[in-house]
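Put briefly, the fold is written as integer tokens. One such record reads:
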Amino acid sequence: MGFFSRLFQPRSDGLKAPSDWSSLPAEEASELVLFDEEAGRVMAQFDIDAAIVGHERWLPWLGTLLQGQRDERLRADVVQDDRCSELGQWLHDSGRAALGHFPAFDMLLRRHRYFHQQAAAFIIHVEAGETALAEQAYKSCQHASRQVVLLLKELQRGLPGTRRRAAAKR
């Protein structure tokens, strides 16, 4: 059982998670596990492995700006919108419909949004020639990206079919 899955479970009363995820009471903490019907719907709509790989590509792409390379697709006004990526589109649409009742989902959504905010700040600092601030924003991007990937992996571990495949590999 993973770290996040022990902490973030759907609320027993069915209400939305509090906006301050860090203060969840202990009695609300338990495992993030999706029922087979939900898991099937999530897996049919979204490839979590591809989302992880796609998200991990952002950091090297952003890093090219530090090396003086320019990419017209990396515009702060576009990157700031966390819906500009496939993962962001899924999180705001069918991902929310399927998994929005899990407190960990809201944390994933916030971490993903924060990543995009920091990526936009990074681009702005690079374009302004503010190297120290750009490097600081890049480190924030790295940290947020690792959190997004960890949350996606935790979500993936909670899928019943994924757990069965992992057990079969042992």
